[in-house]
Amino acid sequence: MRKYILVCGGSGFIGTHLIKKLVNEGHKVLSVDISNPMHQESINFEFIQGDLRDYSKCIEIMKNGPFDEIYQLAADMGGAGYIFTGDSDADIITNSALININILKCCVTFDCKKIFYSSSACIYPQHNQLDALNPYCEESSAYPADPDSEYGWEKLFSERLYFSYQKNYGIDVKVARFHNVYGPFGAWNNGKEKAPSAICRKVAEATNPGTIEIWGDGNQTRTFLYIDDCLDGVQKLMDSNFHGPYNIGSEELISINNLAKMAMEISGKDLKFEHIEGPMGVRGRSSHNLKVRSDLGWQPETSLQEGLEKTFHWINHQVQEALQTK
């Protein structure tokens, strides 16, 4: 069945891939974002440029409905260099909370039936992520709450906001906690890039032989989820009778040092590390997928090696293009 779908934050990394997937499946898509689309020239969808912090703009957008589904990806976010310095905490909380409150109020006004909300693994407590080799991020472990960033606190608040609207207004809410989604078309050089893109950029820009900078000692661990697997998990959630929250992530744990080594091997470069001070977040974080495997039958299929190869080659191309235009 062809659906009419609204994607909020459609010009972002995940939104860009999601819109392509939805259009290829034959759905009609309206995208809204404060920024113009990128990497979407050959995709047939509607676009409205607008600031979802403005309630009147949300009303204007929702009048284009009714929508069969809404994907709420819009947020003030970025990688560790943006989230964990503390310099943007007030903006992060205010901007994202305004967006979510406005969208949910409009969902009630325009009788929207189903909405997906993208939460984050940043909601998990610091005390469960002190051991780099044994982090614990099972869904129910979110409480007692103690996220390590204001970004995580806002995401946790917004989860409760969405489920409150489900309880009081009957909206079919779906919530997933994303764990470090990466891939081509993501931020790679604007200060908001996540670890895989930042590492790939550093390796691509480095002379051979040479050095790259790593924040901290590099022994902090994470798991990284390739974008195609992320969208598959979201679709399984949207097509189910479950609501979440569910972890949508990989369980392939790796240190930042070893992630950099993997990128170096892909590049063929002989590089050394220079460890410098920088925001690192928690010591270890890994998705815990027992619940999502049991309820939705989902698990990622793309290995980190495979996904990082695709990501590195895309970022390397961007780096080479940038050098040619100088």
From TrEMBL:
SUPFAM superfamilies: NAD(P)-binding Rossmann-fold domains. Residues 5-249 form the NAD-dependent epimerase/dehydratase domain. InterPro entries: Epimerase_deHydtase (IPR001509), NAD(P)-bd_dom_sf (IPR036291). It comes from the Bacteria. Belongs to the NAD(P)-dependent epimerase/dehydratase family. This is NAD-dependent epimerase/dehydratase family protein. It comes from Marinoscillum luteum. The lineage of its organism: Bacteria, Pseudomonadati, Bacteroidota, Cytophagia, Cytophagales.
